[in-house]
Amino acid sequence: AEADCLAIEQRVRNNLKKLGREPESISKATIKSFCRNARKLKVCRYRLLEDEFSNPSVPDIQKYLTDEDYSVAMGFYILLRAVDRFAANYNNYPGEFDG
User: Fold this and answer.
1) In the chain, at which end, N or C, are there fewer CB atoms within 10 A of the end residue's CB?
2) Alpha helix segments (H runs only) across 19-92
3) How far is CA 82 from its chain centroid?
4) What average pLDDT does this structure show over 67-90?
5) pLDDT confidence of residue 98
6) Model confidence at 99: pLDDT above 80
7) pTM value?
C-alpha cells in the first residue's frame, strides 16, 4: 500500500508540474488521505450536458418523479430547466426587474 501511495504521489507531482502549478501545492498528507480512502470512491456516470439539454430523457424524468428518494431533486431539476428556458426567451431571470 505504501508503494502504491508513493507512485500516486509521484504522478500527482508530475501532473501538477505539467499544469504549471507548484508540485508541492497538494500536500503529502492530502495525497496519503486520498490513497487511504480511495477504496470508498464510486464512479458516477452521467449524460453529457449537451445531450441533456438537446434530448431530455422524458421516461427517466417520469420514473424519478414517482420515486420517493428522487422526487425532490427532480422537482429542482424541472424548476432549473424552466428558469433556463425563461432566461433564454426573455433575456432575464424570473423576478429580475429593470429597476
Assistant:
1) C
2) 28-37, 49-54, 58-66, 71-90
3) 21
4) 92
5) 65
6) no
7) 0.49
